[in-house]
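ESCALATION

Customer reports they have been waiting on this structure for their group meeting. Please prioritize. Original submission:
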Amino acid sequence: MTKKILLGLALMLILLVPTTVLSVRADSAPPTAPGDSDKYNFNAGGSTFAFPIVDKWRVEYNKLYPGITLNYQAIGSGAGIKLFTAKKVEFAGTDAPLQASDIAKAPKGTLTIPESMGAIVVTYNLPGVQHTGLKLTGDVIAKIYLGQISTWNDPRIVNLQTDPTIAKALHLDRNKIVLVHRSDGSGTTFAFTGYLSQVSSDWNSKIGQSTSVPWPAGMGGSGNAGVAAIVKKVPESLGYVELAYAKSNKMASGIPMTYAYVQNHDKTAFLDATVDTTAAAASGAISTLPAADGVWSKVSINDAPGPNAYPISTFTYLLVNPNLEQLKGMDKTKAQDLVHMLYWFVTDGQKYSTKLLYVPLPSAVQDLDKKGISEIKFNGKQLWSYP
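Update from on-call: job pushed to the front of the queue and completed.
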């Protein structure tokens, strides 16, 4: 009798173990990939900050799934949010999380999906300086953009320099700084002015943080590309752009675009903007991020503490309508393909980030994104389950 009972238990275990293993595998399986016969074009737009990485994803995803094409227009975060709110795109890119006024207009339950992290640099065209490394503090950057520091040889800039080449060029340069800023509604501006608001009470009280602000001085350029184009052509100019635009452009003289090292929050070092220093800026915030359907308006990785945390850094996001049947031309198969594409962006697509100077998403952020993507529905039915 005892032997029969033991044999029965053993058989039950044999039957149960495969079922358990299969259940775990099913729960963690990725969304269904597009079929060979699927032919869909997805329209999206917004952030110019994110354009280099999104465009890379567009190309690589199409290589894997030739029937799926993506048309992403780099028109600025503000314009992207407007298109998303009007349900004119399948998703939008933005570096500025939705604020209260945006949330009120956006589709109910809008999902905020962090898709990358990057740095914003203060780029300059200073005759006589052929390399990156001008040193600036947050307070000095704010004073420049407030128009309170207007010439290159201002002692408040000169006295920060330890590089003799830069210091000499500044001493001799009595010309006015040609200031450049964004002319469009911009997530890059949102992050940059957020940084200035954190490090300068004067800036915070007079200008504040927004995607578009009343600049006290300077000329405007459209998109990160527009600001970069002005700075690289105009001597004595200074502007702010996403790091990839500085690294991928050259001055009119043929030298790489130069940009400043910015003092860290701890005031212990002037830091170069790199993938590592940007990752350091984000490390402390990851555990406190809201759910994808939560409120992201207060999320910031600017001026983060830590000796190696580059101070002007930001997440960039995808905005997704969780009820895809609301979008014109959407059917269930197209909705399933969109879910797979978004999943691929935040998982396999991250391997392209570092080369383009974005920070690959840590596993905790990927997990948050997967949970958000699993909330996407078509006609009330969940398209993919996670975990």
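Sent to customer with the following note: The chain has two domains: 40-116+284-301+314-382, 120-283.
Escalation resolved.
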